[in-house]
Queue: 2 jobs
Job 1
Amino acid sequence: MVTPKSINGQVMIGAQINPWEVRTVDPGPLEAVKLSVQKNWEWTRQIVETLVGLFTRQTSVKQLMGPVAIADLSGTAAQGGPPGWISLFTLMAMISLNLGLLNLMPIPVLDGGHIFILALEGAGAPRLSA
Amino acid sequence: MRVKEKMLLAGFVLLLMLMVTVIYNDLMRIQWIEKFVPWR
């Protein structure tokens, strides 16, 4: 039985609707791999959208963060809440995925650039490598 | 070979520009540094 109480002129029952749904998941190994793939795919899409947005000017260059901001974020993630390591490891995973994807961009110095040049040569373009 | 060298140089310059941009963004988020920048 709920007895409403009047606090500062407002009648309350001691419950509120949270805008976020909080769920605790305890997955087995296979379920964990599935969740990991889902999360990585979601982040990959976000990273690609951001990169495309930089060229179409839908994403501001001011949103880009470098080593100083990453250090700041790591500190905040490590201190935040009781399971601090979860946010820290999540951030580490995101940075790792970001590095991997950016490295695949077809810019000549990066690995993606080497793949691009080799693909061009494989497609019949004149040989660029030494 | 000259073409590949030019491409690598262009990529290197692009990455340097990206690095300068993100570090500038980072530093401008720090309030006490922002005070010393007249155009902000």
Note: The first helix of chain A runs from residue 29 to 56.
Job 2
Amino acid sequence: MTKKFIAGGCSFTFGHELSDDDQGREPSKKSWAHVLKPKDHQYICAASPGSGNSGIARRVFNEVARNPDVDCVVVMWSFLSRYDWAMKRHNSLEGSRWASISPWDTDKEQGRVFEQLSKDKDQLEIWNKRREIAKHNGTSQFAEAIYRYAGNMYHEAYLSWKSISWLQNILEKKNIPFMFTLADNSLFYDHQAHLKGLDGLMTAMHNEIDLTKWFSFGERMMGFNQWASLNDYEYATTHPLDKAHEDAVKLMLPTFNKLIGDI
Amino acid sequence: MFTWIKNLWNKFKQERVYKKRLKELKKKDPFIYK
């Protein structure tokens, strides 16, 4: 039986805008996770562009539950402000149920989207289609309600850390070796202040996260995107290109080998 | 009249806070498309 290597994350793991990206139809073979995968393993990409941390944990768990012979899991956690929600059934939703919601789904400042995507007609077309569908399946109105009335950093950090601990504990229970990393350190920091200092609950939640199973790109839990930007790697519209992924893997390998061992 | 102006002012303030927060979130997470 082929050993399985599961990768979870957002567009950075899926490989959006990398050289082999075909408008997001298939996960990239140039992304950090695919480059990191041992050659004799089957790659299962549970990453989805635009996903938040609850969605990342859900998709990885789903793959772990469906596959009995998982040998290893790697996850690059994403931004705090994205939500994952089971909506009323609609064909356009993931599994006819799940919606990934980001601040860009609100009606405000749609002009900025057009401004940023105007260079790439294909991306603009994808975006317009997505907006149209979102109006029908209710995610557009829901995003407006979340970010206007309910969303805040405390709750978003709480949900993200809960998802991280949940997945960590499941993987430990199932004896599946894993390595976690992150796209951006806003998962743990609000500018200079660590979010664990917000109150006792957040301190306790942070203590549950086993940071010895993490790889970060520098001090203060620097994330992949921050590292790529700081080191002037070439970018597409918003994502670092292939070279950043290749070099990131070189940095990750010692931690990966230590945590995962000989698989 | 005074209440009407106060409500209008509060609505304007709420709208400004919302717009500011969205701008901040979009700056932190600039990845537009799915």
Note: The beta strands of chain A are 3-8, 41-45, 70-77, 83-86, 98-101, 178-182, 189-190, 193-194.
